[in-house]
Amino acid sequence: MEKKKANGFALLPILVFLVLYLGSGIYFEYINPVEGGMGFYIMSVVVSFVIALIVALVQNKDLTFDEKIHVCATGIGDDNITIMIFIFLVAGAFSGIASASGGASSTAYMLLSIIPVQFAIPGIFLIACLISMAMGTSCGTITVLAPIALAISQSTGLNLALCIGTVVGGSMFGDNLSFVSDTTIAATKTQGVPMQAKFKANFKIALPAAAVTLIVLLIFSFNSGVADFSIDSFNIIQTIPYFVVLIAAICGVNVFVALVGGTVLFFIIGLLTKSLTIATAFSAMGDGTTGMFETLVVAILVAAIGALIKENGGFEAILELIKKSFKGTKGGMLGVGLLVLLMDIATANNTVAIVVAAPIAKDISKDYKIPAKQTASLLDTFSCIGQGLIPYGAQLLIAAGIAGISTLKIMPFLFYQFALLLSVLFFIATYKKGKEVEGHMAGHGMDN
Question: Which of 112, 121, 326, 430 is close enough to 331 for a disulfide, judged by CB 3.0 to 4.6 Å?
Fold first, then answer.
């Protein structure tokens, strides 16, 4: 296959997207705020990418329009993109029925009921970690737990920003590691590695960060005086599907089987506990899949734009820049991390950032001899660091909205995100390539 000639001009669609999406976000959030609206979500990410796609289509006069459409179709028809789309749909149905059945809130309150009041903050961090691991969504976890954190703060006198920041941190732990997280799906499918391999590589980075965070929160707990607080009632039966899916995923059960099985369990248990009717169950699954539509459309648009940029030599230009700036395997790993981190800061969406950066990261991975599982881990980790720290990201905006405080007040208490950044930088600095032999196509298009 003929190597494409580096062409920096081919990156213009990305610049157009950044100017439109990030520029409009800054304008409507800080310069001319819209009352009752989130500035960074006024300009639709879909619309921004459609305009960027149009720019990509008018480039490269050596190709006819039909040839460009074929390039787009080839990118969209990639096996990993197709699998990723199917999993997004099933994951949406699972998340929707989990919330509607009361499973998410019951799980949170059940775990909170066994935690001593003195350790409410470290406890809610662990609960957020567990629920986000099971749900695979940081926004969903924050939506469930932020009201509980608010109640804890009001009842105990603990710092509200600390309580909310703890929830956000725990939610990013699961967003980064969960088998059903869209970031995990995107990172593994685009790099062609099994989820279990990525999980093992990722866990070595995330566990130390979580441990450090827990220690910091324990120190806060010992130095804080708290009063008693009450929790809402829960149904332990409603928690069963979460733990079944979590155990199944860790044991290596196919992600489709795990998600479909969990959805069916929530359906059955919801009917048995009368938290759902047949009508509300199907409605909840519909709402869940509908909630994934923007992600699906973005994945399709990004695949098309990425294929055109690659065809026009844009990826080669980025590779040349990274090769000039970073040397050796460690430098390549840092280059992958910086690439996806910058994309997340620009797009305020970690899944989008991964999908955009993934093709370039895969090429870097091959050139710098970085194991594919490490590349997938770095993509997911750095994107979640960025997403969990930016004040205009959905996670902090949702949390701040529920708590009624500014995102900037929460940021100093995002201990897990800061710890995760230090952990991944330490991992890269001390990385030693072992005797493992891992083909970059191992597990391509497959998931066990």
Answer: 326
Domain extent, residue 140, equals 8-429
Phi-psi region of 374 (alpha: psi -120 to 50; beta: other; left: phi over 0): alpha
pTM: 0.72
In a domain, 435, yes or no: no
Q: Does a structural domain hold residue 97?
A: yes
In a domain, 288, yes or no: yes
**Domains identified in the chain, total number:** 1
Burial environment of residue 354 by CB neighbours within 10 A (0 to 12, 13 to 18, 19 or more): buried
Side chain identity at 114, as an amino acid letter? I
6-59 tens-digit pLDDT: 888 998 998 898 888 888 888 887 888 877 666 766 888 889 889 999 999 999
Residue type, 409: K
Instruction: Give the integer Cα–Cα distance in Å for 167 and 386.
Output: 16
Q: Identify which of 418, 398, 391, 364 has the alpha carbon closest to the alpha carbon of residue 191.
A: 364
**Residue 369 belongs to a domain:** yes
HSE on the CB side for 364, CA within 13 Å?
A: 35
Alpha-carbon distances, residue 311 vs 59, 86, 377 (angstroms): 11, 26, 27
Beta-carbon contacts of 337 under 8 Å, excluding residues fewer than 6 positions away, are 378, 381, 382, 424, 428
DSSP 313: T
